[in-house]
Amino acid sequence: MNKKTIFIGASLFGMLVTGSVGVYAGSNLPQIQAYLNNKVGIFVNNSEFKPVDDKGNRHYPITYKNSTYLPVRAVSEALGVPIQYDQATNRILIGNSAGAGTSNGNGGSTGTSASRPQHLPSDFPLPSDAKKIELIESASDGKKSVYYTLQTKQSLSQLIQTYNTYLQQQQYGNLVDSSSDDTIDITAAKSQMSVVIEGGIVNSETGLSEYTIIWSAS
Fold it and tell me: In this structure, what are the phi and psi dihedrals at residue 34, rounded to the nearest 5 degrees?
């Protein structure tokens, strides 16, 4: 069981693993029988493209009634086209409509200057140069969840120290820091709150790091 399964609410986790409308899985959608098609190769501009999730696990096309379907978020990243799922209107936005950086607090957005997530605690540390890559927030029945991926050029070692200090000051228990020189990997929990911070350096020459904050409270 990975950290997302442990720390994030079921509805938000559904969106994370599907990248779109997984929150509606179950009785709200008709069930179908489809097949993972690992025989199909995908090429983008003559280069092979292998879709993976944020853990590096391979995604394969799905074949259903003689049609082949690809994971929309992975394809959007391969083509350099922004994508956003607007939960309020139940729409997947591809292209310019997804890149405007608007958010109603329940959808997602990509590649924009960061603004503080609505449901993240107001004192939760964020880098001043943070660039928002993806933001998904959920709030219902007193439960709040935030999935926030961002990029920064702030020193990774400084980030690790900052988050450890903050979590200790806020009296989070079960604090586990498995970070390394080029990765950040911190988990903690207290009362009805839990947090996972994971990611690492994506460009050592520029000092660019990308990491995800997964925070929930109930």
Answer: -125, 175
- Least-confidence region, from 5-19, 152-166, 181-195: 5-19
pTM for the predicted model, two decimal places: 0.53
Q: What is the length of the chain?
A: 218
Closest C-alpha to 58, from 69, 74, 44, 46 = 74
For the chain, first and last CA: distance in Å?
21
Token reading at 86: 């607007």
Residue 22 has pLDDT above 50, yes or no: no
Question: What residues does each domain of the chain span?
Answer: 3-217
**pLDDT of 176:** 95
Distances, alpha carbon 30 to alpha carbons 25, 27, 33, in Å: 9, 7, 10
The whole-angstrom separation of Cα 208 and Cα 155 is 9
Say how far apart CA 193 and CA 80 lie, in whole Å: 35
